[in-house]
Amino acid sequence: MNKPQVNPSFQPLYQQIKALLTQSLISGEWAPGAAIPSEMELAVRYGLSQGTVRKAVDELAAEKILVRRQGKGTYVATHSEDTVKLRFLRLVAKDGTVEALDNKMISCEKSKACANVARLLNIKPGSTVIDIKRLLLFAKQPVILDHIIVPATPFKGVTAPLIEEYNGSMYRMYEIRLGVHMVRADERLGAVAADETVAGNLGVAVATPLLSIERVSYTYGDKPMEWRLGLCLTDRHHYFNQFE
Amino acid sequence: MNKPQVNPSFQPLYQQIKALLTQSLISGEWAPGAAIPSEMELAVRYGLSQGTVRKAVDELAAEKILVRRQGKGTYVATHSEDTVKLRFLRLVAKDGTVEALDNKMISCEKSKACANVARLLNIKPGSTVIDIKRLLLFAKQPVILDHIIVPATPFKGVTAPLIEEYNGSMYRMYEIRLGVHMVRADERLGAVAADETVAGNLGVAVATPLLSIERVSYTYGDKPMEWRLGLCLTDRHHYFNQFE
DNA sequence: GAGTGGTCTAGACCACCAA
DNA sequence: TGGTGGTCTAGACCACTCA
Fold first, then answer.
1. Cβ neighbours of A157 (radius 10 Å)
2. Element (DSSP H or E) covering residue A193
3. Nearest nt (C1') to A70 (CA)?
4. Residues B59, B49: Cα–Cα separation, whole Å
């Protein structure tokens, strides 16, 4: 009997197109903020119907990798012009006010990757990384103490003055200065007590409960690029999450 | 000039179909776990092409209100048979193990809605509610102290024995016993210190840092139905979140 | 008015499931 | 083998933006 009942290697055309589009994004053919070719142009380029291209673009738009604008075109998502300033920052003031954000550098130096971070960033333990510590201030008050680690290789040239130049907006700086665009993140949250150092930095009493946010950020193709541990004061802010 | 350049009242057909499908879900025409009519049947019923029905169903599937199963049909999502036991519980063991879950009731009694909860549940302050306190145990160890408030009206008959009958799986119980199906939730997280009562219930020292999770759950049509405050020990678990 | 994305249709064929 | 959802096409028309 010749029944091709199950075809394990089957992959829809629109998935293949999606992969090709992602490749173009990785290669830098279309930069963040720029328009990609119209659906009709892409259909011609790949020899497909508009509908198939459409489905591929739909998925990338759902993943917030592309942004559709009716009547104008489809654009590469960017951290530089988002209506909402910080796409991955879910901390909001409890009273709903929109507060000014400031960055205060503590340190920025070369270091060696510990085993845990190396595993999460998919690099060799002991390889060179850049180790950043900084304070985020909401309405001039310290709220988050961040510890950020990125591999030295694609992030060469990251210094305290550079970070301050972008007022602490790391993803915006990565994108513009290094061509590294983050598309996804996952976070692990818990509650911890402030130790002496942390309490001193945040200006609170030792043992104050803090929200601990450990985050790994990924660029195109699910490649991990940044590890981050944020310790947050949650007396005047909370972490907001919504799901289905 | 007669240019209908902008039509503010324009609504796509598939959005109207989506609303009709939601109405059928609210009315109970299709119960959780049951199959809805096939795309072709729906297309005939509403006098549309399959593609248009498809787009409506696609959106409801993306919202996890419907579940597509290739070759079988489209089903109403349910909390009763999810492969993942608890759809809205994002607390996972740090070591990745899957732990047994148990429920220990503390209290379940009638009460009056305070202003804050009344506002969030969209009911009148002072109206009758059911006030539940319980402990969730992971691998026999207390991890979450829950305080749950639901309006008395649709939740009449909720008692401690009923909750224990479902081993604390509230959403499963709401769905099967009360016909209330939750489709969405939002949460506000922070860190707090355990007071004496809480510490006693969780079996930890006073002032232990706890993850505070305030959640409002919604049924079809974004109607808020349950308020919940969970205080969680995060020494062996963390709250996992992933986004784009 | 030209060009873009957004909607809708009609029909073909494929992959999957159950009986 | 028949029914379901999943993919793909070709073409029409609509809503929106901008020059």
1. 10
2. strand A182-193
3. C5
4. 16
> CA triplet B31, B33, B37: central angle to 5 degrees?
70
CA-CA distance, B133 to A225, in Å (whole number)? 42
- The DSSP element (H or E) to which B75 belongs, if any, is strand B73-76
**pTM exceeds cut of 0.90:** yes
What structural domains does chain A harbor? 13-76 (1.10.10.10), 91-239 (3.40.1410.10)
For residues B35 and B182, what is the distance between their CA atoms, to the nearest angstrom? 18
Which H or E element spans position B61? helix B50-62
Instruction: Look up tokens 């089957």; give the residue.
Output: A10
For residues A189 and A87, give the distance between their C-alpha atoms in angstroms, rounded to a whole number: 18
Considering any atom of strand C, list protein residues whose CB lies within 7 Å: A 4-7, 10, 36, 38-41, 51, 54, 68-74; B 12-15, 48-52, 55, 69-72
Token pair for A169: 């907006």
Q: Look at B243 and A192 and tell me if their CB atoms are within 8 Å.
A: no
3-state secondary structure of B38: coil
Say which amino acid occupies A6.
V
Give pLDDT, residue A1.
Answer: 30
CA angle B220-B167-B32, nearest 5°? 30
CB-nearest to B64 from A63, A207, A244 is A244
Answer whether A239 touches B (CB < 8 Å): yes
Element (H, E) at A201: helix A196-202
pLDDT value of position B12: 94
Cβ–Cβ < 8 Å for B111, B130: yes
How far does the CA of residue B201 sit from the closest CA of chain A (Å)?
18
Whether A206 contacts chain B with CB within 8 A: no
Residue nearest to nucleotide C7 (CA to C1'): B12
Nearest Cα to Cα of residue A20 among A48, A33, A183: A48
For chain B, percent of residues with pLDDT exceeding 90: 93
d(CA A43, CA A53): 6
Nucleotides of D under 7 A from a protein CB: 2-11, 14-18
Torsion of CA A85, A91, A96, A100, to 10 degrees: -50
pLDDT score of B81: 82
Beta strand B237-243 with B91-93 is: antiparallel
Quick check: B86 contacting A, CB < 8 Å? no
Q: Which residues contact B52 (CB under 8 A, 6 or more apart)?
A: B13, B14, B17, B43
pLDDT in tens, A48-66: 999 999 999 999 999 999 9
Q: Provide the residue type at B197 as one letter.
A: T
The rounded distance, in Å, linking the Cα atoms of A182 and A95 is 30
CA distance, residue B52 to nearest chain A CA (Å): 14
